[in-house]
Amino acid sequence: MTKKEEAFQVAINQFSKMDIIYVNKEGVRRKRRIWPLELHNTQGKWRCLAWCEHAQAIRTFIMASTISYKVTARKFDKDQLETIMVKPDPLAEKPDHLKMEQ
């Protein structure tokens, strides 16, 4: 594990938000505030599963594409994350008992 992966692991262990700059698939630099949740190595590439405040969704960030990172003093609450992630999908099919008769 490099210093970068170690910093992400510290943030995960401490429930600390991170500010990162990464290069997307199109080669454009993007700045994001994330809530790092899990670090894993898949096919020889380190990846971080995180809640992205900008996207308001779970995203996977490839560590090699992360060019700048900072563990912030801001903390996130796992309970808060669970509440956010349970938002109903407005496009999802409604259960039969909630459908209006036509």
Describe this entry's structure for a reader.
By secondary structure, the chain is α+β, with helices and mostly antiparallel strands. The protein has a single domain, classed as SH3 type barrels. The chain has helices spanning 3-14, 78-85; strands at residues 16-23, 29-42, 45-52, 57-62, 66-75. It has a 5-stranded antiparallel beta sheet with strand order 4-3-2-1-5. It starts with a helix and ends in a 17-residue tail after the last helix. The mean pLDDT is 86.
Q: Rough shape?
A: globular
Strands, total number: 5
CATH class membership: Mainly Beta
- Derived structural class: alpha+beta
Integer count of domains: 1
Cross-sheet strand order for the largest sheet: 4-3-2-1-5
Helical residue percent? 10-25%
CATH topology: SH3 type barrels
If helices are DSSP runs of H or I spanning 4 or more residues, what is the number of helices? Answer: 2
Strand residue content: over 45%
Computed over alpha carbons, the radius of gyration is 17 Å
Beginning-to-end CA distance, first to last residue: 59 Å
Unreliable parts: none
- How would you sum up the major sheet? 5 strands, antiparallel
- Tell me the series of helices and strands, N- to C-terminal: HEEEEEH
Q: What would the average pLDDT be, to the nearest integer?
A: 86
CATH architecture: Roll
